[in-house]
Amino acid sequence: MERYERAALAESRLLVPAELLGALAERYEVYVATMQPTGVALEALRMLGAREVVRGVLGRDSGLGPAKRAMYSELARRREGASLLVVDDRLENLVEALRLGAVPLHASRDAYRAAQAVRLGVPSGRPREVLALLAR
Fold first, then answer.
1. What is the pLDDT of residue 65?
2. Cβ-based neighbours of 136, under 8 Å, separated by 6 or more
3. What are phi and psi of 44, to 5 degrees?
4. pTM of this prediction?
């Protein structure tokens, strides 16, 4: 499976510009929790010019999956009780983050999913807009 994921790297793109991630990294520790293998995620970040702004990557091969809840728990442990803000496009992942005490923030271009998030009390917006707000 990883072979196919590596082949798909050429089609990879960031939902937000690397410069915006850089602005976020000036204010926050930026981590990536992904269901992709860590190596594939790191390679994608390198190709997209965003590797330097990400403090760490937790992939499905990190021994913490398959659900993102375990990844978020590990990030909370690393943060030693400091606030954890989780930005995700999947509501089920944000519910898990909320259960762990993290602040959930929904980022999606899908208006229906955004409406679902808002009904659940989770702020939502387009990825670029959400992260731009945080970078201010």
1. 72
2. none
3. -60, -45
4. 0.79
